[in-house]
Write a structure and sequence with these properties.
It is built from 4 helices and 8 strands. By secondary structure, the chain is of the alpha+beta class. The N and C termini lie far apart (about 55 Å).
């Protein structure tokens, strides 16, 4: 419902939408009008300092985000390293946390929490919410590495 005539205006208006929101675009090109339905928006990497109003708390020392928000997204795509069914990106791991002790590090990719596929940070947080005891995470790794990691609860 908003006229957009350049790249900057498109990014401005799309950037106001929440991740995972949908959008309907109407593109006019060479006199033809084409509707384009965007089912789910993602994020993309923006270099420099980030301004975040409320970062979700780390889970067992682990912070995740959209794979597309990683500076390595383009490289991973070209290398065909990304799981085509989706995953979440490990953005940060707190040293000496349960996730760190199990060998999780930034830039690894998580495909499953237990047997549940996770493709967005919200799905990840929902899958681990209110879970007690050890939780298995499946990683998108080369076959030679350990693909399943068991993350223990925080110890006091």
């Amino acid at each position: 419902g908003i006229d957009v005539h350049d790249h900057d205006a498109l990014l401005l208006h799309v950037g106001k939408l929440a991740p995972e929101a949908g959008a309907m675009l109407t593109v006019e090109r060479d006199g033809r009008v084409m509707p384009i339905a965007i089912r789910e928006l993602s994020k993309f990497f923006v270099p420099g300092r980030k301004i975040v109003t409320s970062e979700p708390p780390a889970w067992r020392g682990l912070a995740v985000d959209y794979v597309t928000a990683s500076e390595h997204f383009r490289e991973w795509t070209l290398q065909r390293r990304l799981d085509p069914q989706g995953s979440v990106w490990i953005k940060a791991v707190q040293p000496d946390s349960p996730a760190w002790r199990e060998g999780l590090r930034p830039d690894m990719l998580i495909t499953h929490v237990g047997s549940q596929r996770v493709t967005t940070p919200a799905e990840f947080r929902q899958a681990v919410a209110n879970q007690e005891g050890p939780i298995k995470l499946r990683l998108a790794l080369p076959a030679a590495q350990k693909p399943v990691r068991t993350i223990e609860p925080e110890t006091s």
